[in-house]
Amino acid sequence: MIMPPERATHSILFLTGEVHALLMFCQAVAKTHPAPKELLEQLNTASQLGLAHLEQLPEAGDVVIDGYQFATGAIRRIAEGEAAARL
Fold first, then answer.
1. pTM confidence score
2. Is the backbone of residue 4 left (phi > 0), alpha (psi -120 to 50) or beta?
3. Is residue 13 in a domain?
4. H helix count then E strand count, the chain
5. CA angle at 27 for the pair 23 and 28, rounded to the nearest 5°
6. Which structural domain range is residue 41 located in?
7. pLDDT per position as a tens digit, 10-42
8. Which helix (H) or strand (E) segment is 3 a member of?
9. Is the residue at 53 inside a domain?
10. Residue 61 belongs to some domain of the structure
């Protein structure tokens, strides 16, 4: 069954809001974490494990992988910025 365009648009916009909220939460965590360098190391490890898991899922196409890498890249840049700011 195909989703009506207005429902698909609503779903995409809703998801965009969720992703933005999660990125802002990640920014708050990075800014208040006592050891941003260690946080970045943990993020890198978790990102690699998450990507490996996604790649094994038959329904995870390129767009899912691209979205995952976009989000983890944004979180990584936030953590890198905090780590660099505290040197």
1. 0.77
2. beta
3. no
4. 3, 0
5. 120
6. 34-87
7. 888 999 999 999 999 999 998 899 998 899 999
8. none
9. yes
10. yes
pLDDT band at 44 (very low <50, low <70, confident <90, very high): very high
Beta strands in the chain (DSSP E): none
Rounded CA-CA distance 79/81 in Å is 5
Alpha-carbon distance of 52 to 13, in angstroms, equals 27
Could you tell me if residue 23 is inside a domain? no
User: How many domains, the chain?
Assistant: 1
Return d(Cα 84, Cα 59) in angstroms, integer: 37
Q: What mean pLDDT, rounded, does the chain reach?
A: 89
Angle at the Cα of 11 (from 6 to 16), degrees rounded to 5? 125
Task: Identify the CA nearest to 24 among candidates 84, 69, 78.
Answer: 78
Residue 82's SS3 state is helix
The pLDDT of residue 14 is: 92
